[in-house]
Amino acid sequence: MTTTLDAAGRRALIETAAAAVIARADELTALDQAIGDGDHGLNMKRGFEAVLADLDAIAAKPLPEGLKQIGTTMVMKVGGASGPLYGTLFLQLGKSLAELAPDAVPSRAELAAALKAAIVAVKARGKSEVGQKTLLDVLAPVQAALAGGADAAALTACAHEAAAATVPLKAIRGRASFLGDRSIGHMDPGARSSEILISTLAAIAGGNSGAAA
Ligand code: ADP
Ligand code: MG
Predict the structure, then answer these.
(1) In the chain, N or C terminus with fewer CB closer than 10 Å?
(2) So what's the pLDDT on residue 79?
Protein backbone atom coordinates (compact mmCIF):
# COMPACT_ATOMS: atom_id res chain seq x y z
CA MET A 1 0.00 0.00 0.00
CA THR A 2 1.21 3.50 -0.80
CA THR A 3 2.22 5.33 2.32
CA THR A 4 2.87 8.76 0.86
CA LEU A 5 0.73 11.17 -1.07
CA ASP A 6 3.03 13.78 -2.57
CA ALA A 7 2.14 16.75 -4.76
CA ALA A 8 2.04 14.60 -7.90
CA GLY A 9 -0.24 12.10 -6.17
CA ARG A 10 -2.52 14.84 -4.87
CA ARG A 11 -2.62 16.39 -8.32
CA ALA A 12 -3.69 13.12 -9.94
CA LEU A 13 -6.31 12.50 -7.27
CA ILE A 14 -7.90 15.94 -7.57
CA GLU A 15 -7.69 16.00 -11.36
CA THR A 16 -9.33 12.58 -11.72
CA ALA A 17 -12.13 13.38 -9.26
CA ALA A 18 -12.81 16.75 -10.90
CA ALA A 19 -12.80 15.23 -14.39
CA ALA A 20 -15.25 12.50 -13.33
CA VAL A 21 -17.78 15.06 -12.10
CA ILE A 22 -17.29 17.37 -15.08
CA ALA A 23 -17.78 14.43 -17.48
CA ARG A 24 -21.17 13.75 -15.90
CA ALA A 25 -22.43 17.33 -15.84
CA ASP A 26 -25.19 16.56 -18.36
CA GLU A 27 -26.42 13.60 -16.34
CA LEU A 28 -26.45 15.65 -13.12
CA THR A 29 -28.29 18.45 -14.86
CA ALA A 30 -30.88 16.00 -16.21
CA LEU A 31 -31.47 14.67 -12.68
CA ASP A 32 -31.89 18.24 -11.43
CA GLN A 33 -34.26 19.04 -14.32
CA ALA A 34 -36.59 16.33 -13.01
CA ILE A 35 -36.87 17.59 -9.42
CA GLY A 36 -35.02 20.92 -9.24
CA ASP A 37 -34.02 23.79 -11.50
CA GLY A 38 -31.65 21.90 -13.79
CA ASP A 39 -28.39 23.51 -12.76
CA HIS A 40 -26.64 20.91 -10.59
CA GLY A 41 -24.40 19.65 -13.38
CA LEU A 42 -23.48 23.16 -14.40
CA ASN A 43 -22.88 24.18 -10.78
CA MET A 44 -20.57 21.23 -10.12
CA LYS A 45 -18.80 21.70 -13.45
CA ARG A 46 -18.15 25.37 -12.70
CA GLY A 47 -16.79 24.52 -9.26
CA PHE A 48 -14.48 21.74 -10.37
CA GLU A 49 -13.28 23.71 -13.40
CA ALA A 50 -12.26 26.44 -10.95
CA VAL A 51 -10.46 23.79 -8.88
CA LEU A 52 -8.65 22.55 -12.01
CA ALA A 53 -7.66 26.13 -12.84
CA ASP A 54 -5.77 26.22 -9.52
CA LEU A 55 -4.70 22.59 -9.63
CA ASP A 56 -0.95 23.14 -9.30
CA ALA A 57 -1.32 25.51 -6.35
CA ILE A 58 -3.82 23.22 -4.60
CA ALA A 59 -1.71 20.08 -5.14
CA ALA A 60 1.41 21.86 -3.88
CA LYS A 61 -0.24 22.36 -0.49
CA PRO A 62 -0.42 19.66 2.17
CA LEU A 63 -3.64 17.65 1.77
CA PRO A 64 -5.57 19.41 4.59
CA GLU A 65 -4.73 22.85 3.18
CA GLY A 66 -5.59 21.72 -0.35
CA LEU A 67 -8.94 20.39 0.82
CA LYS A 68 -9.67 23.72 2.48
CA GLN A 69 -8.84 25.58 -0.73
CA ILE A 70 -11.16 23.26 -2.68
CA GLY A 71 -13.87 24.02 -0.11
CA THR A 72 -13.37 27.76 -0.46
CA THR A 73 -13.43 27.46 -4.25
CA MET A 74 -16.70 25.50 -4.14
CA VAL A 75 -18.30 28.10 -1.88
CA MET A 76 -17.20 30.93 -4.17
CA LYS A 77 -17.74 29.40 -7.60
CA VAL A 78 -20.64 26.96 -7.31
CA GLY A 79 -24.04 28.54 -7.24
CA GLY A 80 -27.10 27.20 -5.53
CA ALA A 81 -27.43 25.09 -2.44
CA SER A 82 -24.72 22.65 -3.41
CA GLY A 83 -21.87 25.21 -3.38
CA PRO A 84 -22.04 26.00 0.34
CA LEU A 85 -22.78 22.33 1.13
CA TYR A 86 -19.91 20.81 -0.84
CA GLY A 87 -17.77 23.76 0.26
CA THR A 88 -18.52 22.95 3.89
CA LEU A 89 -17.78 19.26 3.25
CA PHE A 90 -14.31 19.92 1.82
CA LEU A 91 -13.49 22.68 4.34
CA GLN A 92 -14.32 20.41 7.27
CA LEU A 93 -12.43 17.46 5.76
CA GLY A 94 -9.38 19.75 5.61
CA LYS A 95 -9.87 21.01 9.16
CA SER A 96 -10.34 17.49 10.51
CA LEU A 97 -7.18 16.22 8.83
CA ALA A 98 -5.11 19.21 10.01
CA GLU A 99 -2.71 17.06 12.06
CA LEU A 100 -1.83 14.82 9.13
CA ALA A 101 1.93 14.49 8.62
CA PRO A 102 3.22 16.11 5.40
CA ASP A 103 2.62 13.87 2.37
CA ALA A 104 1.03 11.17 4.55
CA VAL A 105 -1.89 9.11 3.30
CA PRO A 106 -4.72 9.46 5.82
CA SER A 107 -5.49 6.19 7.58
CA ARG A 108 -8.93 4.62 7.35
CA ALA A 109 -9.65 5.78 10.92
CA GLU A 110 -8.56 9.34 10.12
CA LEU A 111 -10.68 9.41 6.95
CA ALA A 112 -13.70 7.95 8.72
CA ALA A 113 -13.41 10.51 11.53
CA ALA A 114 -12.91 13.39 9.09
CA LEU A 115 -15.90 12.36 6.98
CA LYS A 116 -17.99 12.00 10.13
CA ALA A 117 -17.16 15.55 11.18
CA ALA A 118 -17.76 16.82 7.63
CA ILE A 119 -21.22 15.21 7.60
CA VAL A 120 -22.05 16.93 10.90
CA ALA A 121 -20.96 20.24 9.35
CA VAL A 122 -23.02 19.69 6.18
CA LYS A 123 -26.07 18.83 8.30
CA ALA A 124 -25.65 22.04 10.28
CA ARG A 125 -25.17 24.10 7.13
CA GLY A 126 -28.17 22.55 5.34
CA LYS A 127 -30.34 22.18 8.46
CA SER A 128 -30.78 18.69 7.11
CA GLU A 129 -30.69 15.07 8.18
CA VAL A 130 -30.22 11.70 6.54
CA GLY A 131 -33.39 10.50 4.82
CA GLN A 132 -34.38 13.85 3.30
CA LYS A 133 -33.21 12.98 -0.24
CA THR A 134 -29.91 14.86 -0.34
CA LEU A 135 -26.21 14.17 -0.71
CA LEU A 136 -26.24 13.18 2.98
CA ASP A 137 -28.07 10.00 1.97
CA VAL A 138 -24.90 8.88 0.18
CA LEU A 139 -22.27 10.44 2.47
CA ALA A 140 -23.65 8.92 5.69
CA PRO A 141 -23.83 5.25 4.60
CA VAL A 142 -20.42 5.55 2.93
CA GLN A 143 -18.98 6.95 6.18
CA ALA A 144 -20.47 4.04 8.10
CA ALA A 145 -19.06 1.54 5.58
CA LEU A 146 -15.65 3.21 5.76
CA ALA A 147 -15.67 3.10 9.55
CA GLY A 148 -16.74 -0.53 9.36
CA GLY A 149 -13.76 -1.58 7.26
CA ALA A 150 -15.25 -1.70 3.75
CA ASP A 151 -12.71 -1.98 0.92
CA ALA A 152 -12.72 0.22 -2.20
CA ALA A 153 -15.11 -2.03 -4.12
CA ALA A 154 -17.52 -2.20 -1.18
CA LEU A 155 -17.42 1.60 -0.77
CA THR A 156 -18.25 2.03 -4.45
CA ALA A 157 -21.12 -0.44 -4.18
CA CYS A 158 -22.36 1.30 -1.04
CA ALA A 159 -22.33 4.72 -2.75
CA HIS A 160 -24.12 3.30 -5.79
CA GLU A 161 -26.84 1.62 -3.73
CA ALA A 162 -27.24 4.69 -1.52
CA ALA A 163 -27.74 7.01 -4.51
CA ALA A 164 -30.26 4.58 -6.00
CA ALA A 165 -32.03 4.43 -2.64
CA THR A 166 -32.82 8.17 -2.91
CA VAL A 167 -35.21 7.40 -5.82
CA PRO A 168 -38.20 6.36 -3.67
CA LEU A 169 -37.57 9.08 -1.07
CA LYS A 170 -39.66 12.22 -0.79
CA ALA A 171 -37.49 15.35 -0.71
CA ILE A 172 -37.68 17.29 2.55
CA ARG A 173 -34.83 19.77 1.88
CA GLY A 174 -33.74 21.84 -1.08
CA ARG A 175 -35.69 22.82 -4.18
CA ALA A 176 -36.92 19.26 -4.74
CA SER A 177 -38.95 19.58 -1.52
CA PHE A 178 -41.16 22.14 -3.31
CA LEU A 179 -42.48 19.22 -5.39
CA GLY A 180 -43.65 17.24 -2.36
CA ASP A 181 -44.76 13.76 -3.43
CA ARG A 182 -43.78 14.49 -7.04
CA SER A 183 -40.12 14.32 -5.97
CA ILE A 184 -40.65 10.58 -5.42
CA GLY A 185 -39.35 8.37 -8.22
CA HIS A 186 -36.26 10.39 -9.15
CA MET A 187 -32.67 10.11 -7.98
CA ASP A 188 -31.39 13.09 -6.00
CA PRO A 189 -28.79 14.99 -8.08
CA GLY A 190 -26.56 15.75 -5.09
CA ALA A 191 -26.64 12.11 -4.04
CA ARG A 192 -25.48 11.14 -7.52
CA SER A 193 -22.65 13.73 -7.58
CA SER A 194 -21.48 12.42 -4.20
CA GLU A 195 -21.59 8.87 -5.55
CA ILE A 196 -19.45 9.91 -8.53
CA LEU A 197 -16.86 11.56 -6.27
CA ILE A 198 -16.72 8.64 -3.84
CA SER A 199 -16.55 5.90 -6.44
CA THR A 200 -13.85 7.76 -8.36
CA LEU A 201 -11.75 8.27 -5.23
CA ALA A 202 -12.34 4.65 -4.16
CA ALA A 203 -11.21 3.42 -7.58
CA ILE A 204 -7.96 5.35 -7.22
CA ALA A 205 -7.42 4.18 -3.64
CA GLY A 206 -8.17 0.62 -4.71
CA GLY A 207 -5.51 0.82 -7.39
CA ASN A 208 -7.89 1.05 -10.30
CA SER A 209 -7.70 4.41 -12.03
CA GLY A 210 -10.80 3.66 -14.07
CA ALA A 211 -13.59 6.17 -13.75
CA ALA A 212 -16.67 5.71 -11.63
CA ALA A 213 -19.52 3.58 -12.90
P1 ADP B 1 -29.97 24.32 -6.07
O2 ADP B 1 -30.90 23.36 -5.38
O3 ADP B 1 -29.81 25.58 -5.31
O4 ADP B 1 -30.34 24.52 -7.51
P5 ADP B 1 -27.99 22.38 -6.87
O6 ADP B 1 -28.95 22.00 -7.92
O7 ADP B 1 -26.58 22.61 -7.31
O8 ADP B 1 -28.49 23.62 -6.03
O9 ADP B 1 -27.89 21.21 -5.77
C10 ADP B 1 -29.04 20.48 -5.42
C11 ADP B 1 -28.63 19.39 -4.44
O12 ADP B 1 -28.19 19.97 -3.22
C13 ADP B 1 -29.76 18.47 -4.07
O14 ADP B 1 -29.87 17.40 -4.99
C15 ADP B 1 -29.39 17.99 -2.68
O16 ADP B 1 -28.60 16.82 -2.73
C17 ADP B 1 -28.53 19.12 -2.14
N18 ADP B 1 -29.24 19.93 -1.16
C19 ADP B 1 -30.08 20.96 -1.39
N20 ADP B 1 -30.50 21.50 -0.23
C21 ADP B 1 -29.92 20.78 0.76
C22 ADP B 1 -29.91 20.84 2.20
N23 ADP B 1 -30.62 21.78 2.86
N24 ADP B 1 -29.16 19.95 2.87
C25 ADP B 1 -28.44 19.01 2.23
N26 ADP B 1 -28.39 18.91 0.88
C27 ADP B 1 -29.11 19.77 0.17
MG1 MG C 1 -30.41 23.00 -8.88
Answers:
(1) N
(2) 80
